[in-house]
Records
---
Amino acid sequence: MQQWQYAFPSIPDVLRQNRCLCPCKPFEEKEYYIPIRRTSNWFGAVAFCNSAGMEIAEVLNADEANALRQVMIEEESDDDMEFFWIGANDLGVQGTHRWGLTGRPVTYSNWTVGEPNNALSDDGSNQTERCAAIAKDTFEWNDFQCTQHKKFVCQQFRDE
Ligand SMILES: [Ca+2]
């Protein structure tokens, strides 16, 4: 599995500033893409989507959730337990989830019961879970340590 290595230490600072760095068009039709055979930590996923002219995926309502579900169903995989990074995170203020680099608050969500639990890592690094991923089998969300490597979902607006 090819892994995307990318140092992007400024993202938490950017998120704390709560600025919109991406095209902020929440009501336009968009498409989701899952880069084939590529995994990354959450920061690298953001960077990869941006480098491809896209953004880390936002899921703003039930219609978008259904669209993302279709893309995930079509994604070939041997592991039904896979998770895919999406843009939701609480890197800026713990417990307050926002989308990617747009800073939009997370209003629609589909957290698994008991999530996000902001769990503490067991590797002694003192990291907690600040970045969200969506499950391939249930389409429910869970928060994970942002440094974990997972597949991820980008989005692109159709008129661009
Ligand atoms: Ca969690």
---
Amino acid sequence: MWLLTVLLLWVDPTKAGITLQPPWVSVFQEETVTLQCVGPRVPGNSATLWFLNGTATPTSTPSYSIASASDRDSGEYRCRTGLSVLSDPVQLEVRRDWLLLQVSSRVVMEGEPLALRCHAWKNKQVYNVFYYQNGKVIKSFNRNSDLTIPKTNINHNGIYHCSGMGRNRYTSAGVSVTVKELFPAPVLKASVTSPLLEGNLVTLSCETKLLRQRPGLQLSFAFYMGSKTLQGRNTSSEYQILAARSEDSGLYWCECLFSLSFSVSGLQSPTPVWFHFLFYVVVGIMFLVDTVLCVTIWKELKRKKKWNLEIPLDSAHEKKRQEQEEQLQNRVHRQAPQEA
Ligand SMILES: *[C@@H]1O[C@H](CO)[C@@H](O)[C@H](O)[C@H]1NC(C)=O
Ligand SMILES: *[C@@H]1O[C@H](CO)[C@@H](O)[C@H](O)[C@H]1NC(C)=O
């Protein structure tokens, strides 16, 4: 029985994860930061391995505490728990400056949140704070405040910095943030490229390509003509007009929606102690009955990408038909004005 459990875990290894408290990947010298290694453990054994720049550290507890950060703490951290594989790296940077733009992560998957903080040395008050992305102001606050982007998209890629007024106006160094795109905007294609005639079968397909696989990612598609919904959210990326009639002329568009589950990171409030307690009790019981328990906290997200396609259909006028042909051949796609 135990062997079976071990085998099951071995076949489906879980990656450990690192959360930071406070949740920023860069800190000032002398500040405090705690890294927490999250992953399945053998009950009663909290042993954790911590690596800094690829070298094992003496720390063997689930949390890695840095009481007063110094240059020696800068670097790439990874961890693993008893029943997990090595986590993705977290790059911790220790700086000395007047103002520091802190980010919750330097690399985020499209749809995940990103938090920014304009943090002054020794927590000094700064006013009239500006956040910049690629040199342009994106937000200003009279009283200093964090900036949260709840759902990132590729437009959030770039270099961020901030400035704030203390005794003088201070400006932070830039921090590069990368948002990894999951799939490009879909393209709506029609099966018919020759002149559309009444009675024709037209298949519309909403095409997109997943750029990266991700567990918990699901795509679905919706088709519209003008403001009318032709096919609501469905996993099928095709829609058929069985016998086109002149009323079917119009502007068609499709939406590709995704729902994404992702692990709650250090951005959210830390898990309370009772949760850890409950977690160990539950894991213990589950092991006794020889069942594998996977606990991950998932959050559902949706985002839409749209694409338009003009389908004119008019059997009467030759001139119009030529236009149709051109339009269909050129496949003039227009990006929908806004995300819904
Ligand atoms: C880890 O590597 C980074 C960059 O390669 C370096 O700046 C840092 O000092 C290293 N940290 C340690 C503890 O060796
Ligand atoms: C999705 O589309 C298929 C084929 O068009 C259809 O058979 C099915 O009922 C649809 N499902 C939903 C939930 O609308």
---
Amino acid sequence: MFRSSRASVALLACVLVPSLAAIGCGGERLRGEETAVLTAPPLVPPPITRTHPTKVIVNLEAHEQTARLADGVDYTFWTFGGTVPGSFIRVRQGDVVEFHLANHPSSKNPHNIDLHAVTGPGGGASASLVIPGQTATFTFTALNPGLYVYHCATSPVGMHIANGMSGLILVEPKEGLPKVDREYYVQQGEFYTRGDFGVAGHQPFDMRRAIDEDPAYVVFNGSAGALMGDKALTADVGETVRLYVGNGGPNLVSSFHVIGEIFDRVYTEGGTKQINENVQTTLIPAGGAAIVEFKVETTGNYILVDHSIFRAFNKGAIGMLAVGGAADSSVFSGRQYEGIYQPEGGAMQRMPTAAAPVVPTAKNRAEQIAMGERVFAQNCAACHQPNGSGLAGAFPPLAASDFLNADPKRAIGVVLHGLSGPVTVNGVQYNSLMPALSLNDEDIANVLTYVYSQWGNNGTRVTPDQVKAARAAGGQRVNMDAH
Ligand SMILES: [Cu+2]
């Protein structure tokens, strides 16, 4: 039951009958309350056995963390629930979903969530916008059944998705889905790194490559090899397998195919009515999904690929379903072709040979500005916006900022240590928190020199030596309460 304060929320109107029992949309009675079981890929929460709608509480956390993208290659992923793709969410048609999005205090960026299963403005995006260390709640009714993508929609949107912020939510139809033996969660996505595929070291996001739709990596489940070797999906002969396949993009369309299998059924584009049978390859749009089902009739390794095939063998879009049990020679005569894929697949496994990228240093103010622009795009633009305008009520402007122009030393301290407490910028007060960003002296000098050179600011040049001196002087987060 809902507290009366919620009655004004139009979204919930169809579940509220004043002073009587709550009735779900479609006339079903809303009963009880539960917390959703979320799973990390490739696992899927258990099927829903309820025959009535309920209130489902979903707790999801945005968390930025560095992890393996390929052998010898690390990447700072932005995640929902600590994995890429994000946690799998499973609800039933008619459920009222109370969604709690938290942003871990260690995050450097604000995040939100747009669930394609939501009927309502932005799919929940502005209702869920949270800065680091904040949590927000909104509620929606799962009106339409189907398999839906969710993703972060905080600006720059493409960058948040490209860093890993997407996943799947299944809204089971009222009658449920047919029983199968195995269910798995697979999602394709691209990564736009400075270095090409396999170049070792920690690889930063490359905005230019992303805009050019030129990914270095196209992978299933967040990293090259996430579904290979001992991490392959498994099944036994005679079982039915259902794959929930998403495509987070952000740019590419997937031609999803399993080598050596035919999809007995495809829920086209993740909908529930258009069921296609006997399909070899199904198109999964960026920001879309499909449910594929097939029975495994004989043993062997079945290879999941994006049939835009260079992506599979040269960019990582390859996974494996290992089927055990007794081979059925009437289905297939023997001599299996799994070996044929290994030599090329081996290109993915190649040992890192190239050295980690050398960080260049700026020689003059012009170079500082050019390099600072990149630091800004990666570390500041998400909050202060690409044009420095800020975001009313949340992030102060850097464009023509009297606060910034008054005191370069203080500005260095802000970027070094963060900022909290009330601060007045161009006559408007903000009282929020900017996290410390752990940038090096060179990056801080360059980004501030860039910011000072833009948008009507006073052109101050900040040198790495000044930052070094400020760092050596120590200090902590600039707290305006104390000023
Ligand atoms: Cu985000």
---
Amino acid sequence: MKTSCAILILMACFGLMNAAVKRDHNNYSKNPMRIVCYVGTWSVYHKVDPYTIEDIDPFKCTHLMYGFAKIDEYKYTIQVFDPYQDDNHNTWEKHGYERFNNLRLKNPELTTMISLGGWYEGSEKYSDMVANPTYRKQFVQSVLDFLQEYKFDGLDLDWEYPGSRLGNPKIDKQNYLTLVRELKEAFEPFGYLLTAAVSPGKDKIDVAYELKELNQLFDWMNVMTYDYHGGWENVFGHNAPLYKRPDETDELHTYFNVNYTMHYYLNNGATRDKLVMGVPFYGRAWSIEDRSKVKLGDPAKGMSPPGFITGEEGVLSYIELCQLFQKEEWHIQYDEYYNAPYGYNDKIWVGYDDLASISCKLAFLKELGVSGVMIWSLENDDFKGHCGPKYPLLNKVHNMINGDEKNSYECLLGPSTTTPTPTTPSTPSTTTPTPTTPSTPSTTTPTPTTPSTPSTTTPTPTTTDSTSETPKYTTYVDGHLIKCYKEGDLPHPTNIHKYLVCEYVNGGWWVHIMPCPPGTIWCQEKLTCITE
Ligand SMILES: *[C@@H]1O[C@H](CO)[C@@H](O)[C@H](O)[C@H]1NC(C)=O
Ligand SMILES: *[C@@H]1O[C@H](CO)[C@@H](O)[C@H](O)[C@H]1NC(C)=O
């Protein structure tokens, strides 16, 4: 009796000692808000600007997600997706997991996780696996072995989605919950983290998640608040609208915006401390059918051709877009309800996110009080610095979440349409933006007396006292604030071979980015391009 007690106590002590030396899988004490960064690791195969693990900045994210692992379609166990890139069993393999997890040596506060699934994995295998207790057990054990072998800090479940696509809407929801319970129990002794990437769509959420229960089990959930509209639809729309427009009264548009999704999670059992909101570093694009129809909701001709880096139809990453904006003539507008830009050249129409719109999404999520931001994905940012300093979007996220601007609620496009009462007040004098684009369109819509014939409206810039007057329209070009006081030409902020034209057309302000003819540069005094 006594001896067995002593042994038990000894074992308990060893257990504690073990726990004490074990890695804290969630050590980000320095940065209290989560910055969860996904990496689409197949981007190492991009022909232009391949993205490698060494391109990751280990100090700007609190959590890094390796996308993706898969499950074996016969055994239903977790599997390395691309042994050549990911694994380290053979000398010729590239040790991706190891290099990724070793980023924690550079930043001890960093947490690294494996993400399982993703869109292209489909739903069927997962549906089959969770329906069978034996498969589930094998799966859970395989995950434990996997995390131990490759030294990840936890698992991120990215099944898209329980009950949808080739899943089973009748039983997936309960089976998914059962799986998450079993994973949670198995992870407990090791302290592994358990998270999920979850759908932004109300219809998918309703079929997939027992939110109240899942909220207790997951360390947190990454809400994929993007992909609301894209080339699978035949009209132009935005990838990630923050709010709905007043004219959008149909069900689809009422539900399909960031604000609706986040409130839906909060109203159906998710808590703020368990919610992390996604921001996209890419846009979704269409080919233009008719050059005279380039408004939101106008008919499109299908997905845009593959981007020159990412190679995916209908998708343009920020690193592609910022370079296209520099090379060609583009027309860009910000929707004041979407709080995000869209634009077109002569072939492509794209709804995307940039520095300004991301600042608004960050202000929104901070006002909402959720526990962090998720990024899809690092390789989509201008990590090479082709258009300015490297990683412009990631740096903005880091600054506004855990950096110098962490007390700022500034939305660079003006006040958000909600009138928030921030719980942690910032210093309003410095951070509250002077509302350049006011939020009620009825009052702000300028009434230009003469429609836009640039020749007659050519401004004499010196007469405008730009410090006291309120601009009619503000926007960002290459991350620089552009103020339109009237219609007319302005210098391009970063490129002397270009100029900007502020124009009011069809009820909205536009900033056109115009090239000078070859061999000439812009001269603002003469309002024309001159020979260098
Ligand atoms: C968390 O990380 C810091 C280093 O940034 C380290 O000093 C501390 O011991 C860690 N805490 C735990 C519980 O691992
Ligand atoms: C945001 O969503 C909430 C809940 O659905 C709604 O009450 C509110 O009006 C929305 N805000 C805006 C500006 O659309």
